[in-house]
Amino acid sequence: MAGGHECHHCHEWIPAGDAHDCWTTTEAALTAELSDDLRDAWERLRETAAAFGEQRIYASGSAIMFSRDACYFFVRPRRSFLQVCVFLGRALGAPQVRRAERTSSSKVAHIIHITHRDEVEPPITDWLREAYDLRDVLAARRAKPRQRRKRAERRA
Asked: What is the model's pTM?
């Protein structure tokens, strides 16, 4: 049987009837071609984040996601650097940050390029921890107005 189609994501030719899901990938597949320096940096990033606590770490498309209820940072392995995108509740003005963009009313995405294991240290590791903790900070902010309202209702 002839025929098939080109995947619009990965541009691979898919024969007719063959299953294809280029969005399904693994950490190993995304990091397989990293240089030794980038592999060391990747391993240090992963170990640092995994030590924060319970979370889900998974590959999706061209990135490796680190998530609690929502993604708090992700890594896109590139040929000469790791592109790290960290979601914080504030904008950073640091030399390590290539770009910052508001993604919602409560979060700012920060793009950082890492080329060596030695870069995975403060302040970058502090920002990763801050991003991991952001869920709890935002939940506490949302709870405070309710608590004030309840107190006011009790007084009335």
From this structure: 0.78
- In this structure, the number of other CB atoms found within 10 A of the CB of residue 112 comes to 23
CB 68 within 8 A of CB 135: yes
d(C-alpha 73, C-alpha 80), whole Å: 20
Q: What is the pLDDT along the chain (156 residues), one digit of tens a residue?
A: 468 878 766 777 888 887 766 666 789 989 999 999 999 999 999 999 999 999 999 988 889 999 999 999 999 999 999 999 999 999 999 999 999 999 999 999 999 999 999 999 999 999 999 999 999 888 888 876 655 556 666 666
The domains found in the chain, sorted by start residue, are 4-155 (3.30.1460)
Terminal CA-CA length for the chain: 78
Backbone φ and ψ of 39, nearest 5°: -65, -45
